[in-house]
Amino acid sequence: MMRRRTTLLTGCIAAALALGATACGGSEPVAAGGGDKALDGQTVTVAGVWSGSEQENFQKVLDAFTEKTGAKTQFVSTGDNVSTVVGSKIEGGDAPDVVMVPQVGVLQQFAKKGWLQPLSKPVESAVDAGFADVWKKYGSVDGTLYGLYFKAAHKSTVWYSPEALTQAGVEPPKTYDEMLEAGHTVSDSGLAAFAVAGQDGWTLTDWFENIYLSQAGPEKYDALAAHELKWSDASVVKALTTLGKLFEDKQLIAGAQKGALNTDFPGSVEKVFGPEPEAGMVYEGDFVAGVAKDQYDRTVGEDADFFPFPGVDGNDAPVVSGGDAAVVLKDSKHRAAGMELVEYLASAEAAAVWAGEGGFLSPNKKLSLDSYGDEVTRATAESLVGAGDSVRFDMSDQAPAAFGGTKGTGEWKLLQDFLRDPSDPKATAAALESAAAKAYRD
């Protein structure tokens, strides 16, 4: 995999693919299942894409597990290429016990290769009791539960500068048409409406997915995600036409198409929340807040806020999500201890550890909203959990990497081409279908 969406960026950190610190408990440990130090002396190795502050915050969750069970933990940061790194470790006889898998497609790949241990009955019971059915569906392959979604992203949030919208005299819009209308008003006041991160193809897939889910509905979304519906379908052409109206409007996009194609995700956040703003709004997931807060010292809820991605053509507002699922590898040395860790991660107690640190959403409806540190994050979490089974997982994350997850090819490149010239949605849809057919066939 060539990209990571729910992990906050900074490629310089990704280069340091080193082992995380080993965590040891300090107080009298009690086993998660109620026994006495059942895992004392064992070390659970966990692999995942997280680095920087995300890795540090996850380590606090692992530390809490240590105090509860006596097990030590060791975190290995894989970078974006999770499947390659994990595959090489399995072949070398050094499989981690638990992997935090960032895409549905990768989870399915691991399961079909026979790498995964089905999750235990206690985990399945916790999922049934605390999670919407859709999360169990995305964690399962052929009816068997392999993945527990611990961390989620809400990818239907439009972030804005309250100062910019107030100066333009506009309120957060309720419909897609109102959003474009508000964008023109913002533009008339001196700023572009949107900063679009066209240099990163994954952001463009997210734009498309939100429009498509609202406009075409969840059934067609599911069919297109599974390639049971062709990308040349009229519903795809319609969504591209809607998206094209934004892309072609030079008033709405900072720097117009050329500027967008030269803007990466961090740059798009900077254009709204940096020291010299160029736009009033930026669409992306809840993780925008972390960049605005950490990089530009914005106070979330005061000078950085969001509104839900609005419904299109009078339809319901979409809720697109992503997430990281904990899986247990069959060939690991401490598989039973790894399963104990996943049982712990399925609890509201574990989720509360990271929720209190920020930069985290849980799909676990048993986690109290009071666990989150600010009102904006609470509102985002409430929207995600409240959407229940209407949540849909990021479509490109469900696709083969050759189509939905590789820089310079497939959906990423074709939507960048469409941003450059959105004049022929039907031709773009046909090109998407050609690329998808090849990727799903291979």
Automatic annotation (TrEMBL):
Where is the signal peptide, in residue numbers?
Answer: 1-23
Keyword set includes Signal: yes
* PROSITE patterns registered for this protein in UniProt: PROKAR_LIPOPROTEIN
Q: Could you tell me which InterPro entries the record lists for this protein?
A: Bact_solute-bd_prot1, SBP
Q: What UniProt keywords are attached to this protein's entry?
A: Signal, Transport
Give the family this protein belongs to, as stated in its UniProt record.
Belongs to the bacterial solute-binding protein 1 family.
Q: What is this protein's record name?
A: ABC transporter substrate-binding protein
